[in-house]
Write a structure and sequence with these properties.
There is one protein chain. This protein has 122 residues and is mainly alpha-helical. It has one helix at 3-111.
Length: 122
Amino acid sequence: MSPDTLTIIVSAIGVVLTLGASLFAAGAWMIRRIDERLGTVDHRLSTRIGSVEGRLGARIDSVEEKLTARIDTVEEKLTARIDTVEEKLTARIDAVATDVTDLKIAVARLEGPPRHLLVSGG
């Protein structure tokens, strides 16, 4: 093999190794930069999500307290109304029961045996 051919082969191997090492270094640098950016973005997003989660949690708790208070108020009002209606219905049912009893007595008197008049002798 001639020295010129050997020089060309060694130079080609050197160029391939240099290009390979450069590509490897560039890839490693890009991966490191991407990891740094992702770490920064991840930290910022985690912080932001945490603050939003805290605010939403407080807001949900506030709405829950308001709704609970409102539901309790409505429940008290409805209970009072139901009790009033129940008392009125009980009174009406009792009145109807009394009227029915009086009606039964009146019907029994109408259908009963005729009354005998007692005439005094004399």
